[in-house]
Specification:
With 102 residues, the chain is an alpha+beta fold. Helix content is 24%, strand content 21%. The chain has three helices and four strands; from the N terminus they run αβββαβα. The longest helix is centred in the first third of the chain and has 13 residues.
Length: 102
């Protein structure tokens, strides 16, 4: 998706159309939603998180995996403000103990 706003709008559009979210994930460098097309092929829609959140430790960001809600109002939110940062961005943000560990 071209932007976070477009991603969130697409989440709402898909839910309104009754599309099931098979999985939502914070991948460290992207936020993704996994759905199935009418032929039951898996489709991933994603947007790239701001570069400054992961560029200091790309390996740490790529290795990160945190499941996100797939149902209810929480499935339509993208909580970028509480997403983890890696490398230099992490040093400037909250202590590591406050971030989820997977």
């Amino acid at each position: 998706m071209p932007s976070r706003e477009a991603f969130v709008a697409k989440l709402a559009d898909l839910k309104e159309k009754g599309v099931k979210f098979n999985m939502r994930v914070n991948h460290g460098v992207t936020h993704s939603v996994y759905i199935s097309d009418p032929n039951r092929y898996g489709v991933e829609l994603l947007y790239e998180l701001p570069r400054e959140m992961w560029e200091g430790d790309i390996d740490g960001a790529i290795d990160y995996f945190a499941p996100l809600p797939t149902e209810g109002d929480a499935a339509l939110k993208d909580d970028l403000e509480n997403a983890p940062s890696f490398g230099k961005a992490a040093e400037l943000s909250e202590p590591r103990s406050a971030r989820p560990v997977i």
